[in-house]
Design a protein that fits this description.
This protein is α+β, with helices and mostly antiparallel strands. The protein folds into two domains: 176 residues; 144 residues, no CATH class. 50% of the residues lie in helices and 11% in strands. An eight-stranded antiparallel β-sheet has the order 4-3-2-1-5-6-7-8. A hairpin with a 6-residue loop joins strand 1 and strand 2. Helix 1 packs antiparallel against helix 5.
């Protein structure tokens, strides 16, 4: 049985190893995208000096609207608990477009644009730089990523079975890296011993990542939890699941003439009722509150209100939210390592970085055995 797992580990690693390295490295590069982007573009995300009070939400939304073409509207405004943060206005188009505005002065600090480096890494991680075919043809990049990730799951599991020591002495040897016994032993330990320490993290990344690659896998995973998988590329989500979430609902009467008339009132009520909020997003007839807490980082309390009167008409707290949306939030949080805050993201960063090195050390050991190096 051990020989079978060893062959499985080898013959899956040889064709998919380099792709696995690329996926792990690009994933590691994306872990701290938010922090790096904010540090590199501080004038966009932070105000120089916090004022004593912010302008009203309706005034801020109107100021952003005045700079937009008639075909584009403000669909939501996100306020942050941090007084040093600019607020984010979500636009109707293009997809995920938004601008940032100083809440104290009304000055628009800039438009959100993903840094070219992170855009490149994202496309590399998700699709190996491939693009969706307009004619509906095979999306090869996405398919190759999915197959490689699935192969990685079997590589990890077979590697675990091969690693299992026969006795206590062997266990000690397989848990430490020897640096004084030659280059080959060092590379072996970097592959085997280090690999076992990050095994669980890489397995979680792979199992959750597969939900973006295969519909059948996503459907089966959700059925394990007794729910149907949400449709759509993001397979789940709602207003407030990320920064600047928002959606626009067509309304008649006064709401169409004064689309932001009740935004400030809604925000005031939600802020007063949720003193520990991280961000509050208000849109046309909908609003959400998110909290900076451990667990599902896309968790949010959802509210509906009457656009004519500003009165709340419904609320779905996160604890009462649809199970499918909760599952997706957890899948995302486990995949990127955000569920435990900075600590788990640091762990995920190093695990992905080391994961990128495992196929390379494996190739070296295989070529050494073949006496090619």
């Amino acid at each position: 049985m051990r020989k079978t797992f060893k062959k499985l580990h080898l013959w899956l690693s040889l064709p998919f190893g380099l792709i696995i390295s690329v996926l792990c490295f690009s994933g590691a590069a994306l872990v701290f995208e938010k922090e790096i982007s904010e540090a590199a573009q501080q004038p966009l995300y932070f105000v120089k000096e916090a004022g004593s009070s912010t302008l009203s939400m309706d005034e801020l939304a109107e100021r952003v609207t005045a700079t937009l073409p008639d075909s584009i509207t403000v669909t939501g405004l996100t306020a942050f608990a941090d007084p040093q943060r600019t607020w984010q206005a979500t636009l109707s188009q293009p997809r995920r477009a938004s601008v940032y505005i100083n809440p104290y002065t009304g000055e628009i600090t800039g438009r959100y644009e993903r840094a070219p480096f992170f855009a490149f890494m994202f496309r590399l991680h998700r699709w190996l730089l491939d693009t969706i075919k307009p004619d509906g043809g095979m999306f090869w990049g996405k398919m190759i990523v999915g197959v490689s990730t699935l192969a990685f799951v079997f590589v990890l599991l077979s590697g675990l079975f091969v690693w299992i020591p026969r006795n206590r002495k062997a266990l000690r040897n397989r848990l430490r890296v020897e640096r004084q016994k030659g280059r080959r032993r060092l590379w072996y330990d970097l592959h085997v011993s280090v690999g076992i320490y990050i095994f669980l993290f890489l397995l979680m990344m792979s199992l959750t990542g597969l939900t973006w690659s295969f519909d059948w896998y996503r459907t089966g995973l959700y059925k394990i939890f007794g729910v149907e998988a949400p449709t759509g590329g993001g397979h789940g989500g709602s207003l407030g699941k990320g920064e600047g979430g928002g959606e626009r609902r067509k309304e008649g009467g006064d709401a169409s003439r004064l689309p932001f008339a009740h935004w400030q009132n809604v925000y005031n009520q939600l802020a007063a009722a949720n003193s520990a909020y991280h961000q509050i997003t208000v849109g046309q007839g909908v609003a959400s509150v998110t909290f900076d807490r451990w667990g599902n980082r896309r968790a949010a309390d959802q509210y509906k209100y009457d656009s004519h009167t500003g009165e709340f008409t419904g609320v779905v707290l996160y604890r009462d939210a649809a199970k499918a949306n909760k599952i997706f939030g957890w899948i995302y949080s486990l995949h990127v390592g955000s569920f435990g805050g900075t600590i788990t993201r640091i762990i995920w960063f190093f695990a992905a970085l080391v994961g990128a090195s495992l196929p390379l050390t494996g190739y070296y050991l295989w070529m050494k055995r073949k006496r090619w190096v």
